[in-house]
Amino acid sequence: MTSSAATSPTPYTLKTILKFKPFRTLWLAQFVSIFGDFLALFGVISLITFRWHGTPVQVTTVTIAFVLPMAIISPIAGVFVDHWNVKRLMIASDLIRAGLILMLVFAHSVTQIAAIFIVLS
C-alpha cells in the first residue's frame, strides 16, 4: 500500500503576483486611474474652498456626490461586469471618465460639478 503525499499549492506573495505581467499592467493602470480621480476630487475641493469661497456644505456635497454612487452602484454593477468583455469595458469606461473629467473645465457651479462626479463615480 503506497501513500501519495498531497502537495499543497505554492502560496502567492506580492512578489510572485507582480511577476505576472498582465496583472502588473492592470494593477498599474488602476492605480493611475484611481490616483487621478482623487487628484481631481482634491483639485475641485480646493477650487470650491479657496477660489469660490464655498461653504462646508458645498464641499461635502461634492465629496458625497463622488463617493456615494461607488458605495451604492458598485456592488450591483459587479454582477453585470462579470458577464461582459472586461477589456473593452475598462477601455470604454476610462475613455468616458476622461471625457467627464474634461467637462469639469467647463463647470461653473457646485451643482454642475456634483452632477459630473455622480456620473463619474
Can you summarize this structure?
With 121 residues, the protein is mainly α.
Describe how the helices and strands are arranged.
Blueprint: H1 14-18, H2 21-51, H3 56-81, H4 86-103, H5 110-120
Provide a descriptive summary of the structure in words.
The chain has helices at 14-18, 21-51, 56-81, 86-103, 110-120. The protein is mainly α. The longest helix has 31 residues, at 21-51.
For this entry, give a set of tags.
mainly alpha; 0% strand; 121 residues
Low-pLDDT residue spans: none
Rounded to an integer in angstroms, the radius of gyration calculated over CA atoms is 21 Å
Beta content comes to: under 5%
How many strands in all?
0
Fraction of helical residues: over 70%
Number of helices: 5
Instruction: Tell me, briefly, the overall form.
Output: elongated
The overall pLDDT, averaged over residues, is: 88
Order of helices and strands: HHHHH
Q: Structural class, please? A: mainly alpha
